[in-house]
Amino acid sequence: MQSVRSRCRRSYPRIVFRFNPQLVAIILLLFVLFMFMATGCSKGPLEAPPAPAVEVTTVIQKDVPVYQEWIGTLDGLVNATIRAQVQGYLIRQNYREGDIVRTGQVLFEIDPRTFQAALDQAKGELEAQQARWTTAKANLARIKPLADQNAVSKKDLDDSIGTEQSARAAVLSAQAKVDKAQLDLGFTKITSPVDGISGLAKAQIGNLVGPGATEELTTVSTVNPIKVYIQVSEQEYLAAGQKGAQKPERQQGELILADGSVYPHKGTFGFADRQVDVKTGTIKVAVIFPNPGNFLRPGQYGKIRTASSVRKDALLVPQRAVTEVQGKYMVAVVGADNKVDIRTVQTAERVDNLWVILEGLKPGERVVVEGIQKVRPGMPVTPKPFAEAPAKTEAKPEAKPEAKTEEKASAPQKSAEPAKTEKR
After folding, report:
1. What is the DSSP letter of 396?
2. pLDDT in the model for residue 74
3. Angle at 109 between CA 107 and CA 115, to 5 degrees
4. pLDDT given for residue 413 in this prediction
5. Which residues of the chain have pLDDT under 50?
6. By the number of CB atoms within 10 A of the CB, which of 143, 155, 292, 329 ranks highest?
7. Distance (Å, whole) CA 185 – CA 393
8. Is residue 150 part of a domain?
9. Same domain, 145 and 278
């Protein structure tokens, strides 16, 4: 046992711990430094965040006209379909597509040679029948005195009278053939029946055309004045009829073009269709607009706007101040203490960039226009007056010198967004 212990003592050295004052000083210094840094980084009590800044505007109160709008399609006052009345080959086109043509102006020509020959033949037959009629009249003139003297039989007199009448009828028939041949020859020159703008030619030189052709040669449309067709509901038609009984003058309307510009000339309601469409419950109504310079063309789309009534003392706010949440319209109102109150409002028509408010607001109250997403009910805010940014102006191309003065005068001017009658 003694030998084992002695061997272990010899194999493992003895560890002796000694007190080192320098090491202890370093550890204490590090501890004090750590405590000082922890104390310096500790945060004091949190300060309240500043009230968010928002832009507000005052609720406007004024009389607002209520407009009605309908989508319309433009169409020519007269759309004449040009077709060939005789069969033949086209040899000439005498107009340029898209030009303004006048009544009686020759648009196309058909080869007239066969029709000229038919006319000459009819005239020859007429000459022959007239010669026979002259002979028959001379024979009758000679037989009548002889019949009075009983020198010839009654039958010879009757035969002479019948021959003269038959010859006269043959002359009339030959004259009718001449007239028809003359008309057919005239139909080889296809003319415009109305003043208007010519369309694209759908037949080319050398084509065989005639009354049996399925496609027309072209179309000429009278566009000054021009019609705008709109679909009016039965309820609107009845209301307009009752209003018209009280005010017999024709109602005027504005035309808003596809680019949002307002056509400078006013239109009047011209006529309505004879029946209401049973499938849609609407009736087609035509609004007539003057069209100097032929600026408007058939096939264009536009909106017809009319002022139906005036809403007295209406409350208006910018559309940007109204927020829709799950089908409800909300407005953030800033009170006298600069605290926010979120209210549910009832909206009506839109007028330019404003919205008519029926319920939920009072005149003179302030509503938040910018910064709505930053506010909550009861939150204090820093209100600032709302300043709407000016609209950006785009560079417009320089007008061409060859443009017509009349067309420039008829060009529409840009307007603000039209009023809408859609109610929320």
Report:
1. P
2. 95
3. 145
4. 47
5. 1-2, 4, 8, 12, 15, 17, 42, 246, 248, 391-424
6. 143
7. 61
8. yes
9. no
